[in-house]
Amino acid sequence: MARRGGMQEVELLDGGEPSIDEVGAPVRRRHGRRWIVVGVAAVALSLVATQWVVDARERAAVARLAAVPGVLPAFGDELTVARTITRADVYALWGGITAAGGVSASLDVAADGSQAFVGVDKDSGETLWSTPLLGPNAERAGSLENSFGSGCQSDAGPEEVATVAVCLVTDGFTRYATAEDSAGGDERVPATTTRAMVLDPADGRVLSERAVEPDAQLAVLNGLLLVGTRDAERLEVVAYDLDTGDERWTYDDARARLDETGDAQGSQYWGFMRAGDVVVYSIGSSLGLLSASGESVREDLWSTSGDEYGGGYMTDAVTGNLVLQDYATTGVQSTTLLAADGHPDADVLLEGGLLGSVVDDGSVPGLVLTSSDQLHAWDRRTGDPRWEAELQSTGSALVVRGRVYLTTSTGIAALDGRTGAVVWTQDLPSSSIGALATDGRDLLLSTAFDGGQDGAEQLGADATRKGMTGYDLATGDQTRFVPYPEDVFDVQVYGEMIIGWSPTSDDTYLLE
Question: 173-175 and 334-337 as β-strands: parallel, antiparallel, unpaired?
């Protein structure tokens, strides 16, 4: 069979390719190469675009976390001292009332024993205003470091901004026993003047005030100022309208004895606070709840003997409702979450002690954690168990991006917040395990670790340095080590701030 077209002679040149005129077929071949090149470029561009999307999503996730309460402002590989914190700053940070405009307001006792309601800028620490409340007091001035008296609170719930503050202003105080005179015990210095003052926490204006009994305690509930007083025989709570000052109701309970012996010395130790939609009062082993209308909410929280109660109470940092901790009766610690109104039908009983969350971004809705011989996860509303993990937590937890991060007796761990499956762990020497935090970028472990052979083998060059270690939230790999500034031996994370402590003085620092 004859061949179509006949044979062609082609000259091959070193380093070159046949021309289009010489051979027609390579034209397609060259287009093929061009498509290969274009295809490779398209894949490269696709990878770049994918990485850009991943990076953009990560930046967006970090930005969202930055707005979550408790997340630290982003910082790099260095911590520096922003400023030394004054006494007023310390009160504002630990007992401050958050008001509009970034104001933190608190009652400050000055070096001369005088008292003032002080507002500071939370970011800069600058004093914005100061409202005098009580003049100098030489006796109080002589024991500033080991005494307590007066205090302020507000109408704000968790993560809310306060609109009103109430302060108990008194020259009476408790002088705590020091190591040198511990045999003498605490001393109660009696008051000669005690007032309940209502103030605006944004600018310090005094809105109203009234004289109250020396042992009074205050609470704010549903637009009311509640003033509680007690003696060895009875407890009385009087509610006043915050706007008008008019008396709304009075509650009287003759069962509220301090203890079975009627020891009057303990009259300085009793509790009175708001929790959800009720006010809680505790005297010895007795606990009572009052509604905003002055009615006793329930009677089952009273105990007839201190041995039968063996627990404590607090407010839930997430809901602001009452939480009961029971340590005594069964040998197994338990936690009871109460509803806002305290109604017993809504009690949620959980095994283990409540594990607080330093940060909770809401990525695992309704999650509440307790710890006993293992970690338990529950549904906060129903109390139904979600999962258990064979871990024992040694501190608070972080709930971030669907995972639970916590310290254990052997290091740190990350768990899937929905299933409890362990995602990763990092074994660390016990002396290096401090508090956990996050800046949205990494999991941060603060430690005052000061060396030791075992620790040195595990931490290498960082073993003898005090600082914060960063761990990748996804993998647990160490990402950075940030040493503490000079003259800082330990830090505490408070809200969105890093507070440093000096080993050589009483100075406290704000770090950034």
Answer: unpaired
pLDDT tier for residue 90 given thresholds of 50, 70 and 90: low
Tokens coding 65: 């976390």
How many CB atoms neighbour CB 214 within 10 A?
14
Q: Which residues pair with 414 in a beta bridge?
A: 405, 424
Residue 126 to residues 84, 85, 121, 139, Cα–Cα distance (Å): 12, 10, 5, 29
Alpha carbon distance 177, 471 (integer Å): 43
Residue 272 has pLDDT above 60, yes or no: yes
Beta bridge partners of 256: none
d(C-alpha 217, C-alpha 134), whole Å: 18
Gap between the Cα atoms of 87 and 107, Å rounded: 11
Place of tokens 């509790």: 271
Cβ proximity of 425 and 476 under 8 Å? yes
Three-state DSSP at 252 gives: strand
Q: Which residues contact 21 (CB under 8 A, 6 or more apart)?
A: none
Sorted by sequence, the CB contacts under 8 Å of residue 286 that are 6+ apart come out as 255, 256, 301, 302, 303
As a residue count, the chain comes to: 512
Per-residue tokens: 267? 């009259």
Ordered DSSP codes for 362-393:
SSSTTEEEEESSSEEEEETTT--EEEEES--E
Percent of the chain having pLDDT more than 70? 76
CA angle 449, 90, 225 (to 5 degrees): 130
Q: Distance from CA of residue 246 to its chain's centroid?
A: 37
Long-range contacts, 119-122 (Cβ 8 Å, 24+): 119/201, 119/202, 119/203, 119/204, 120/88, 120/89, 120/92, 120/96, 122/92, 122/96, 122/98
**Extended beta strands in 304-417, E state:** 311-315, 322-326, 334-337, 348-351, 353-355, 357-360, 367-371, 375-379, 385-389, 393-400, 403-408, 411-416
Which own/partner contact pairs does 184-192 have at CB distance under 8 Å and 24+ positions apart? Answer: 188/268, 189/139, 189/140, 189/147, 189/149, 190/214, 191/149
Give all strands of the β-sheet with 271-275 in edge-to-edge order: 271-275, 278-283, 286-291
Percentage of the chain lying above the pLDDT 90 cut: 44
Of 20-24, 94-98, 283-287, 324-328, where does mean pLDDT reach its minimum?
Answer: 20-24
Tell me the pLDDT tens digit for each residue of 329-371.
556 788 999 999 999 999 999 999 999 888 999 999 999 999 9
Indicate if the pLDDT at residue 5 is higher than 60: no
CA distance 140 to 131: 19
Helix, strand, or coil here: 472? strand
**In angstroms, rounded to a whole number, what is the distance separating the alpha carbons of residues 353 and 399?**
17
User: With contact defined as beta carbons under 8 Å apart, do 235 and 253 qualify?
Assistant: yes
User: 3-class DSSP state for residue 406?
Assistant: strand
Alpha-carbon radius of gyration of the chain: 32
